């Protein structure tokens, strides 16, 4: 059974360009507040529909789809002491360094071989030409997505973060609940105009009843703007699927 679909739709429901002039009480660091979460059962896939308020003083919350180059690239490669890319099975000698693709930027990672067994977080299976692939050791880039969500389920009265890899297994590599809020008003970005509104973010899956059951759960989330300014962390209240079913 396929539990998740990597499909995201972001709807900016009430964007308001506040003024042609800067408002001193609107910070250039984005601010967000939880508004609602609904569970919408479907015939093939269900949806969790998250809505939250946002405001930003220079109007640059959002990424164009073409922005996949640094600093918005998906991941950094790991190279070894011989400047060779480290793979799952390569005979690589530390120290290991992180290298940002398409740049000369690099930074130290480890003096020892810190490769783990294969998992979705630390490896990427990539085409190396002529139809062949290899499994590269990588470090995911936090800034590739500008909306990040963390899911928590209450177990014996204590919230525990849900490890999606352990829930779905390695067949879900490449699936993520994080997303990329698009640019919804180019003029506000170009003119650095303050903006505020509500973002509605549906997440589709057939696995929500499997994940949460009748347990209480919550979602914590945060955003980055184009300048990589980090918002506050917002959170839903304690919820159950039954209590938020539309």
Textual characterization of the structure:
This protein is mainly beta and about 250 residues long. It has two domains: about 5-65 and about 145-245; about 75-140, no CATH class. About 10% of the residues lie in helices and about 40% in strands. It has helices at about 165-170, 185-190, 210, 240-245, and strands at about 5-10, 10, 15, 30-40, 45-55, 75-80, 95-100, 105-110, 125-130, 130-140, 145-155, 160, 195-205, 215-225, 235. The strands form three sheets. Strands 1, 2, 3, 4, 5 and 13 form a six-stranded antiparallel beta sheet that branches. Strands 8-7-6-10-9 form a five-stranded antiparallel beta sheet, with no helix packed on it. The longest helix has 5 residues, at about 165-170. It is globular. The model is unreliable at about 1-10 and about 15-20 (pLDDT under 50).
């Amino acid at each position: 059974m396929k539990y998740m679909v990597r499909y995201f739709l972001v709807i900016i429901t009430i964007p308001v360009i506040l003024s042609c002039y800067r408002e001193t009480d609107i910070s250039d660091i984005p601010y967000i507040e939880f508004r609602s979460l609904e569970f919408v059962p479907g015939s093939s896939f269900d949806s969790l529909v998250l809505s939250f308020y946002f405001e930003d003083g220079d109007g640059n919350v959002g990424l164009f789809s073409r922005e996949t180059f640094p600093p918005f690239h998906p991941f950094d490669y790991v190279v070894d002491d011989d400047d060779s890319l480290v793979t799952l099975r390569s005979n690589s000698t530390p120290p290991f360094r992180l290298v940002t693709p398409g740049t000369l930027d690099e930074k130290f990672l480890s003096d020892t071989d810190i490769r783990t067994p294969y998992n979705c977080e630390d490896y990427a299976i990539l085409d190396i030409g002529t139809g062949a692939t290899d499994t590269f050791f990588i470090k995911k880039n936090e800034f590739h997505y500008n909306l990040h969500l963390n899911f928590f389920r209450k177990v014996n009265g204590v919230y525990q973060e849900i490890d999606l890899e352990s829930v779905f297994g390695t067949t879900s590599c490449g699936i993520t609940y994080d997303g990329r809020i698009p640019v919804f008003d180019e003029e506000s970005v170009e003119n650095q105009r303050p903006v505020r509104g509500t973002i509605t973010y549906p997440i589709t899956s057939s696995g929500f009843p499997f994940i949460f059951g009748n347990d209480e759960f919550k979602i914590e989330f945060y955003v980055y703007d184009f300048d990589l300014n980090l918002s506050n962390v917002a959170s839903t209240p304690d919820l159950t699927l039954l209590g938020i079913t539309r």
